[in-house]
Amino acid sequence: VGNHVIIPPATDTKTAKDRLARAKAGEFECFDWWLCHRKLRG
Question: What is the rounded distance in angstroms from the CA atom of residue 21 to the CA atom of residue 1?
Fold first, then answer.
């Protein structure tokens, strides 16, 4: 999606919950716990 990269899906519930919390903080964008993306660094 433009200059965004997909983050591999979480493999356990702890990681999924952490990822959603980080998404709420604005580190990246999630459509659901298994589909998140962020801007390409660099």
Answer: 22
User: CATH code at 27?
Assistant: 3.30.1020.10
Rg (CA), the chain: 10
Distance of CA 4 to CAs 12, 27, 42, Å? 24, 12, 12
Mean pLDDT along residues 11-17: 93
Which domain covers residue 22, as residue numbers?
4-39
**Reported pTM:** 0.71
Q: What span, in angstroms and rounded, lies between the C-alpha atoms of 12 and 38?
A: 20
